[in-house]
Amino acid sequence: PIHTVANCVLGWRKLLSQPSATVKRIAVGSLRSTAFLSAYVTFAQAGMCAASNAGMLDRFRYPFIAGSCAGLGLLFEDKSRRTELALYCLARAFETSVTLLTKGTEIG
What we know:
Elements: H1 2-10, H2 12-17, H3 19-53, H4 62-70, H5 82-103
């Protein structure tokens, strides 16, 4: 959706002058973003399940295991966007770490 809205609002002239190329670019961008978000959540959950089954899941390791696994989702994104998304992942990992460490919540 963000690719569609951004291109319609900011790139409407290009959309009118080159509709097929623009629609193709929007579709590819949307598919990549969808794959990234799906992989981000799937890898994080799979990492937590694997760590839990191995007996390694506690409130100190949880954010690092989940964040490290979720970061693999970046491989689905375009190289030009990886830095931006890596910063997004880092911010979410930091936020989770602070929340878990300040609340003292046990995981698993």
